[in-house]
Amino acid sequence: MEYRLTPMGTIIVGDWEPAMNIIRQCHETVRQMSDRVMTRIKIDDFKDGERLPEEKIKLVESQLGFQVKR
């Protein structure tokens, strides 16, 4: 499973079932260490196929007319 750790969270790129299984496993692992766990997910699902995070960044940069800091 492809993933990227960012300062604001973790991005998982992949098919639905494997991604949901990883999210569940992460939640359950942290749950064993804490009395309370909050897991928040945001799903970005394209009808016409997969778009990688880098592609989205390039699109924003083309609209801005310059490269953003990474």
Explained architecture:
The structure is a single chain. By secondary structure, the chain is an alpha+beta fold. It has one domain (2-64). The chain is 40% helix and 14% strand. It has two helices and two strands. Strands 1-2 form a two-stranded antiparallel ribbon. The radius of gyration is 15 Å and the shape is elongated. The model has no long low-confidence stretch (mean pLDDT 91).
Helix/strand layout:
Elements (H helix, E strand, L loop, with lengths): L1 E5 L2 E5 L2 H16 L21 H12 L6
Antiparallel strand pairs: 1-2
Oligomeric state of this protein: single chain
User: Order of helices and strands, N to C?
Assistant: EEHH
C-alpha termini separation: 22 Å
Beta strands, count:
2
The 3D shape can be described as elongated
* Low-confidence runs: none
Strand-residue fraction? 5-15%
Helix content: 40-55%
From the alpha carbons, calculate the radius of gyration and give it in angstroms.
15 Å
Number of helices: 2
- Domain count, please report it: 1
| Average pLDDT figure | 91
Spatially, the strands of the biggest sheet line up as: 1-2
Structural class: alpha+beta
Largest sheet, in brief, is: 2 strands, antiparallel
